[in-house]
Amino acid sequence: MLIVGNWKAYVDSPQEAKQLAAATKRAATKTRAKVVIVPSFAHLGFLAKAGRSSVSLGAQDVSLATLGAHTGEVTASMLRRLPVSYVIVGHSERRAAGETDALIAEKTKRALEQGLTPILCVGETARDGDARYLQTLRMQLEAVYSTVLPKDRAKIIVAYEPVWAIGKTARDAISANDLIEMILYIRKVLTPYLPQKGAGKVTILYGGSVEPGNVRDLAGGSRVDGFLVGHASADAKTFSALIQALS
Ligand code: 13P
User: Fold this and answer.
1) What is the chain's Cα-based Rg?
2) Closest ligand 1 atom, CA of 93?
3) Which of 129, 132, 147, 245 is the most exposed place for a label (fewest CB within 10 A)?
4) Catalytic hit among 43, 93, 124, 161
5) Is 211 a catalytic residue?
6) CA angle 133, 138, 143 (to 5 degrees)
7) Are 204 and 228 in contact (CB under 8 A)?
8) Over the stretch 190-220, which tens digit does the pLDDT of each residue have?
9) 195: CA distance to ligand 1 center in Å?
10) d(CA 144, CA 111)
């Protein structure tokens, strides 16, 4: 099980970031699940300095640019050297800010070129009666898998994050039954890109109002490989309880 805490822009001061990271590390030593925290760029540098740890680090975004005259950009090679192991690409909050499928595919490539593991977020904004949302999901996945080198495809982690379930409460999350269907659908879409049963081995996470109160049901009922957690990862007590609920 992989538990990824996306702090988004919830954590303000360096002090808070250090305390939250320390509490998460303590919780992570008591579980067999792998735990990853994804702080903002402002906090990533000093959290990475702490050395070997029970918790791995991810970045919330990566630049298209490689080293050079690109003011404001954080490149994949800078992240690798911190070291950071994971990069979130295609988060719905970045898609809402204008990121396209083509741009997300390029960012995924930049991450892979540097040996970082991309966590590719996909998910529909709303559910319609005639299942057009499945088509949205297919397009988001195919844009990336058709662009990256075949040898790199198996390295991508997929995070299914339906936008309608993000930032609410456990009640509003997907049901375990619906999640099973979405995971099967994602594997079906990926089958042509990952032959020889590769699609069955892709790590698929769910994100969208995962909290201590629903995480165990979602995990048990759906065969999901892990979770991408937003608001519940930005509070030390809540995230520790969530990690504990899975151990
Ligand atoms: P919430 O857990 O706050 O719904 O956020 C999910 C998410 O967007 C994680 O990337």
Assistant:
1) 17
2) 8
3) 129
4) 161
5) no
6) 130
7) no
8) 999 998 999 999 999 999 999 999 999 999 9
9) 31
10) 12
